[in-house]
Specification:
Blueprint: H1 2-63, H2 69-73, H3 77-109
Length: 110
């Protein structure tokens, strides 16, 4: 009878050992998954905050540099040319449409 009791205790110990091993492995996998998820988030958090803080100060400092204000406020040649062409087209439209509009208003009054 003591042999059966010894085998039974040994089997109970083996089950306890395998269950403990399985629980520890499960816990390890959960912790590893949490760390794998949180590390990129933490890196992005610190990276984005660092860039946000430093980028704003760099932009403000470059904006207030006295020697670059005229460069920042100047109009590029391409935009100036497009603005001139648009003003010319607007003038042509006025010269064409105003007499037609004026004539239409006179005809409608009759």
């Amino acid at each position: 009878m003591s042999v059966f009791l010894g085998i039974h205790l040994r089997l109970d110990f083996m089950n306890y050992f395998f269950n403990s091993e399985r629980l520890i492995k499960s816990y390890f996998y959960i912790v590893r998954k949490n760390i794998q998820d949180s590390v990129p988030k933490a890196i992005m958090h610190f990276l984005v905050n660092y860039v946000k803080d430093n980028l704003q100060s760099e932009l403000v400092s470059s904006l207030y540099k006295q020697e670059e204000i005229s460069l920042l406020l100047s109009e590029s040649e391409h935009i100036g040319q497009r603005r001139k062409e648009a003003a010319e087209m607007l003038q042509v439209n006025y010269t064409i449409h105003l007499p037609i509009l004026h004539h239409g208003l006179i005809c409608c009054k009759l």
